[in-house]
């Protein structure tokens, strides 16, 4: 069976001078690991199905349903997609839209999702005075007003915080206390608590919960059941996991995915 291609080898957005071009990618046909790379154009990543996790600098981002991760032009990034992931990319020429100069998650309205999907079907070679060009202008104007969401896990460049992040990413069910982590890292608990807040802006409890949310959204979007996700994250019961999820995002997993017209399995 032939080796599948890297996602970045099949499309170069920087070849086009157009303000916005879209491209659809099905990871059934490509390698799930997208290596570190950079574009001149900014990139908005939308998950139509499955899930993708992106890394930019000292942060890990998850692309949940009806949201998109925005990565400005010139920012190095890598990604890992689930095997069932199908994505739409929108590449934006620098200065073409009033979009953030930092990576973030944007809420994406159904209308914008459909317009980006239409642009992906039209291809990257539309004429500057075409209907596709007018659609692209509407998309860029609307994106500038989309609300920002916080679906990221800060991992920091500090070697002690980064080692914690790497260990918890490998085993998110690890329930070690801050005191236990301080002992492992040869620090006092107070010093580690201050370091975490300085480096990530979060307390230890909120930081670990943010990782759990990132993992939960990725796994639920990829088709994993709530029961299995709760077990993977080390929760004693499904109800305890659902309580955490609802407290953080304002709805249960089932409600969250239903509002976004995305499938989800309870068991």
UniProtKB/TrEMBL annotation:
CDD domains, sorted: cupin_NimR-like_N (cd06124)
UniProt cross-references to Gene3D superfamilies, sorted A to Z: Homeodomain-like (1.10.10.60), Jelly Rolls (2.60.120.10)
Entry keyword Iron-sulfur: no
Record's keyword annotation contains DNA-binding: yes
HTH araC/xylS-type domain segment(s): 162-259
Molecular functions (GO terms): DNA-binding transcription factor activity; sequence-specific DNA binding
Superkingdom of this protein's organism: Bacteria
Pfam families linked to this entry: AraC_binding, HTH_18
Keywords: Activator, DNA-binding, Repressor, Transcription, Transcription regulation
SMART domains to which the protein is assigned, alphabetical: HTH_ARAC
Protein name as it appears in the record: AraC family transcriptional regulator
Species this chain originates from: Advenella kashmirensis W13003
């Amino acid at each position: 069976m032939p080796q599948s291609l890297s996602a970045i080898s099949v499309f170069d957005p920087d070849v086009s001078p157009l303000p916005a071009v879209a491209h659809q990618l099905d990871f059934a046909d490509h390698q799930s690991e997208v290596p570190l790379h950079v574009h001149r154009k900014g990139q908005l990543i939308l998950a139509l199905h499955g899930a993708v996790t992106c890394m930019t600098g000292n942060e890990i981002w998850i692309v949940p349903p009806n949201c998109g991760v925005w990565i400005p032009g010139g920012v190095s990034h890598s990604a890992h997609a689930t095997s069932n992931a199908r994505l739409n990319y929108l590449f934006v020429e620098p200065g073409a839209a009033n979009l953030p100069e930092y990576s973030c998650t944007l809420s994406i309205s159904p209308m914008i999702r459909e317009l980006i999907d239409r642009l992906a079907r039209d291809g990257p070679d539309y004429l500057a005075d075409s209907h596709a060009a007018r659609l692209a202008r509407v998309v860029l104007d609307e994106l500038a007003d989309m609300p920002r969401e916080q679906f990221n896990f800060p991992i920091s460049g500090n070697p002690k915080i980064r080692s914690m992040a790497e260990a918890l990413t490998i085993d998110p069910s690890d329930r070690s206390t801050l005191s236990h982590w301080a002992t492992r890292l040869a620090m006092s608990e107070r010093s580690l608590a201050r370091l975490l807040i300085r480096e990530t802006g979060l307390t230890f409890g909120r930081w670990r919960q943010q990782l759990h949310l990132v993992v939960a959204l990725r796994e639920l979007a990829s088709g994993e059941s709530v029961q299995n996700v709760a077990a993977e994250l080390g929760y004693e019961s499904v109800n305890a996991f659902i309580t955490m999820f609802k407290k953080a995002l304002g709805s249960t997993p089932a409600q969250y995915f239903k509002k976004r017209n995305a499938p989800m399995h309870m068991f």
